[in-house]
Amino acid sequence: MAYRVLIAQFMHETNTFSKLPTTLEDYRKRWLIEGEAMVPRFTGTRNEVGGYIDSVKKYGWQPVWAGAANATPSGKLTKECWETIRDMIVGAAKKAGKLDAICLSLHGAAVTETEDDAEGALLEALRGIVGTDIPVVATLDLHANATLKMAKHANALVSYRTYPHIDGYERAAQVAALVQEALEGRKKPRCLLVQPAMLEGADHGRTTQPGLMRDLLARADAFEKEPGINVVSVQAGFTWADIPYTGPSVAVSYEPEAEARAKAVAAAMLDEIWKRRNESSSDYRPISDAIAAAKAGVGKDGPLVVADGTDNPGGGGYNDTTPVLQALIDAKVENVAVGTIFDPGTVQQAIKAGVGATIDIVLGGHTDPSMGGPVKAKALVRMLSDGSFKNDGPMNAGVETSMGPTAVLRIGGIDVVTISNRIQTIDLQVFLSQGIDPRTKSVVVVKSVQHFRAAYAPIAREIVLVDSGGICSPDITRLKFTKLRRPIWPLDGVNDPYAGVRA
C-alpha cells in the first residue's frame, strides 16, 4: 500500500524593521495555491515543490497536496494572513486522515503579528495532529533563523547549500530520500539544533567564492558520511529580524545511537563559525564607485552590473529607493537598464498615457523618502506589459513570476523597468521579457544583494555592490533590537560562543 505523504510550502523572510505589513494579497502576487493546484504550477520547475512532485513519482507515494504559499520578503505577516496559511496546511492534515509522513518547504525566518517563530508554531500544530511517530522533515532557506521549537517537532531540517539558492530541488529530493528510508524502517531520524551567541556569522552564507561558508559545508559533507549522521545543515540566519532567535545555527539530523556524536558534530561546526566570526566576503561600496566604474567602462564588452544591495526586495527592501538611479541621471551615464523600481502609481500613469508618450514622472522614493526621495523627470513610455514571465534560471528555473502591470520608462539614456509587485532581480527575464537585452547594456542595475549573481555574473564585465542607505544596510548599528537574546556578538562583549545558548 502506498505511503500517504502530506506536502506543503510556507515561505517568508520577514524583515521586522520594514513598515510594509505582509498580507494575503502579497502572497497572491507571488503565489498562494491551495491543494492539488500546486502540482500543475510547479511540475518541471527547479524549486522545492518541483522536487517533491518528482519524488512522489519516484517513490510511488500517495500525496496529500496541502498548498503552497510564498511572498516577497517584507514586514510581519498580519494575523489574518498567518492564520489563513497556517489553517490551509493544518486543515489539510486534519482532513487527510491517516498520514505516514509530512514533507515541508519552509523558509525559517517568518514572523507574524502574533508569532516570532511561525515555522516552529506550524510544525508544533502539525505534530499535534499526526503525533510523534511519523517523520516530519522540512527544507529551510540558508538564511533561516532556526529555533529549538522547529528542531523539536521535525526529524530533520535540511537547508540550502548554495547562495544564490539554486539547490531547492536537490534539497527537496534529499528530504524525500530520508523520509523514504524512515518509512521503510531503515532510519529513525531525530533533530538537534545549536545556536551561538551571534547575531551574524558564517559570512551570511555566501558560496560564490572560496571562504568560510564553503569550508563549513565541506565539513558538513564529511560529517554526513559518518554512521548515524543523516544531515548537517548550516543556517547563516537573517539579521534584519528583531526576534530572540536571530542569527546563525547548526541543525544535525541523527540516528538515536549517534546522539553523542551529533552533539559533538554540532559543537565542532559552531566552534568553527565562532572562531572565524570576523571573516566576511562582503564588499559594499559607495555609489560614487559605481559611477566611476560606469564611466571607465564606456565602450567595453559586457555590462557593469551594479547591485543595489541595501534595497534588496529579497531581504525586505522597499524596491523603490532612488539614490543609484538619481546618481546615474546626474552623471549622464548612457545605455543603462535599471531593474526594478516599484511604483504602481507611475505605472498607471504610463498606461494611461500609452506607449510613445512622454510624461512627467515622480518616480520611486515613496515608501520612505529618507532613503532617497522621488526622481522627478520627463520619461518616454517605451513598453507596457502585464509583467509576467517564467524564470530561465539557474535560480527557480521554470517558476512563474509576476511583476504586475509594468512600464519601461526611458529617462535620458536609462531604461527603468517600473513595476507594481515588488520582486528581487534574480533572472535575466526581468529585462528580456520587457524588450531589453541586458547583455547589450553598458550598465545594468539590479535590486539584489547576492541572488542576482547566478544569472548576471556570467554576463557581467564587472560587479559593484553598493550601499545606497536602504533598509537592508549591512550596518547593524542602524537597527534597534528589543527582543534579541543578549548578550550577543557583535553588539555586546561576548567571549564565549555558548553565552546564552539555548541547549
Determine the strand fraction and express it as a percent band.
Answer: 15-25%
Strand order of the largest sheet: 10-20-11-19-12-18-17-14-13
The whole-number mean of residue pLDDT values reads 97
CATH level 1 name of the largest domain:
Alpha Beta
Domains (count): 2
- In terms of structural class, how would the helical and strand content be classed? alpha/beta
CATH homologous superfamily assignment of the largest domain: Response regulator
Q: What's the Cα radius of gyration?
A: 23 Å
Q: Uncertain regions: pLDDT < 50 for 5+ in a row?
A: none
Question: What does this protein look like?
Answer:
With 503 residues, the chain is an alpha/beta fold. It contains 14 helices and 20 strands. The longest helix has 17 residues, at 79-95. The protein starts with a strand and ends in a 37-residue tail after the last strand. The relative contact order is 0.13. The mean pLDDT is 97.
What is the compact description of this entry?
The chain is of the alpha/beta class. 28% of the residues lie in helices and 22% in strands. It has two domains: 4-193 and 224-236, 3-Layer(aba) Sandwich (Rossmann fold), CATH 3.40.50; 284-473, no CATH class.
